[in-house]
Design a protein that fits this description.
The complex is a heterodimer of chains A (113) and B (113). Chain A has 113 residues and is mainly β. Helices cover 0% and strands 50% of the residues of chain A. In chain A, strands 2, 4, 5, 6, 9, 10 and 11 form a seven-stranded mixed beta sheet that branches. Chain A has a four-stranded antiparallel beta sheet with strand order 1-3-8-7, with no helix packed on it. In chain A, strand 9 and strand 10 form a beta hairpin. In chain A, 37% of the residues are buried. With 113 residues, chain B is mainly beta. Helices cover 0% and strands 54% of the residues of chain B. Chain B is built from no helices and eleven strands. In chain B, strand 7 and strand 8 form a beta hairpin. The chains are: A mainly beta (113), B mainly beta (113). The interface between A and B is medium-sized, with 27 and 22 residues.
């Protein structure tokens, strides 16, 4: 089993460009999440999807949009990239919203110049 | 929002030494989780704690859920080079959903062979 798969692994964007980060899980999990990881800041939740068909804002949603395409896939879109969005982005999934641990992908390393 | 204070921020140790790190909070948690992140990869769950006072082991790792429910400790015995990475604690309130999971900022562990 692949677990949580993220694409691409690396990306460089210019300010103002747009892109979509893809995430897919094969564990039949109901809930999915997008985090960003910055030095000294730990992991911060951007958006989450408690179940197929629902999405909600996390701690740092500004500048991002998400789509829960189906139960397996949860994408993160940057409409107009800014240097402040340079970060490592992690997708995660869990069987249910509460009481079940998160399983993380290996991350997308994004640089915005 | 809630904050977790994780310490130390970084540790440099010799192979074979024991390691101890901890997380404290001003808030009560009912679940404590410990994750490890290898370089270039996503966090992986090491140990989950669900009960105050609980002491749980996973190989050379031992974690404890503090009796006050405001802290947790992770110990690694007889460290080896592959223990290198960032260790994160995370806390969750009673009945809380995963989107309320609070992460510490991590402890970077370096093991010198």
């Amino acid at each position: 089993n692949a677990g949580v798969t993220q694409t691409p692994k690396f990306q460089v964007l210019k300010t103002g460009q747009s892109m979509t980060l893809q995430c897919a899980q094969d564990m039949n999990h109901n809930s999915m999440y997008w985090y960003r990881q910055d030095p000294g800041m730990g992991l911060r939740l951007i958006y989450y999807s408690a179940s197929e068909g629902t999405t909600d804002k996390g701690e740092v949603p500004n500048g991002y949009n998400v789509s829960r395409l189906n139960k397996r896939e949860f994408s993160l879109r940057l409409e107009s990239a800014a240097p402040s969005q340079t970060s490592v982005y992690f997708c995660a999934s869990s069987l249910r919203q509460g009481g079940s641990p998160l399983h993380f992908g290996n991350g997308t390393r994004l640089t915005v110049t | 929002g809630q904050q977790l204070n994780q310490s130390p921020q970084s540790m440099f140790i010799q192979e074979g030494e024991d390691v101890s790190m901890n997380c404290t909070s001003s808030s009560i948690f009912n679940t404590w989780l410990w994750y490890k992140q290898d370089p270039g990869e996503g966090p992986v769950l090491l140990i989950a704690l669900y009960k105050a006072g609980e002491l749980t082991s996973n190989g050379r790792l031992t974690a404890q859920f503090g009796i006050t429910r405001k802290d947790s400790f992770l110990n690694i015995s007889a460290s080896i080079p592959s223990d290198v990475g960032i260790y994160f604690c995370a806390g969750l309130n009673s009945g809380g959903s995963n989107y309320k999971l609070t992460f510490g900022k991590g402890t970077l562990l370096t093991v010198n062979p």
